[in-house]
TrEMBL record:
Its EC number is 2.7.7.80. This is Molybdopterin-synthase adenylyltransferase. Pathway: Cofactor biosynthesis; molybdopterin biosynthesis. InterPro entries: ThiF/MoeB/HesA, ThiF_NAD_FAD-bd, Ubiquitin-activating_enz. Homodimer. Forms a stable heterotetrameric complex of 2 MoeB and 2 MoaD during adenylation of MoaD. GO terms for cellular component: cytosol. SUPFAM superfamilies: Activating enzymes of the ubiquitin-like proteins. Pfam families: ThiF (PF00899). Signal peptide: none annotated. Keywords: ATP-binding, Nucleotide-binding, Nucleotidyltransferase, Transferase.
Amino acid sequence: MLTDQELLRYSRQILLAQVDIDGQLRLKNSRVLIVGLGGLGSPVALYLAAAGVGELHLADFDTVDVTNLQRQVLHDTASVGLSKVDSALARLTAINPEITLQAHRSALDEDSLAEAVKVVDLVLDCSDNFATREAVNAACVAQGKPLVSGAAIRLEGQLSVFDPRRPESPCYHCLYGHGSEAELTCSEAGVLGPLVGLVGSLQALEALKLLAGFGEPLVGRLLLIDAFGSRFRELRVKRDPGCSVCGEHHD
Ligand SMILES: [Zn+2]
């Protein structure tokens, strides 16, 4: 059940017919893993905490650096030098003491990643490198967990949802398996804060829809954001039957 405090705190979203009390209860009973507490993970963690997602599992092995602050709005100047997880714990608790937070402060290897994915309902990939994205995707496919994936670099953003519970859904590897510019990181190529904020906010929105159980998720579709021209485009993406991660003939 929801307490009076919770009914008040979440009243503006409970007002939506698509959310209502039942949707809010589903959010309260949800566990989510956020991989990466940087530019994408900042709005994701802030919005999911504020919305009352019951348990947030936070994974990042990095510390806050002054060059992060231009875009990683979860952290502040006083947090420079702290672990990003500890900085996030303080900020998220201040925003919403009603939720539970779990910390993963060290880098996740294959076993710990599988364990971390197993205990949650949904994963948000907010990392900044191809190897992590591939590992997170493989764990989500193996455990049948939906994955909300976002990326932003320079003035370009991308977003998609991969849901192995749906037979028609591609996985991250179907789409990006042959490598891409995802190899470049923001620290090398540059990026604008509001663009990662936009992509992260859209990831949070997709996660809330999936968890509360309403709307049309971005499954089988890749959203491309061109910040230079202020244009959004959408590509259809199909499952690759020969995919080495989600295909029929994988081990
Ligand atoms: Zn695949």
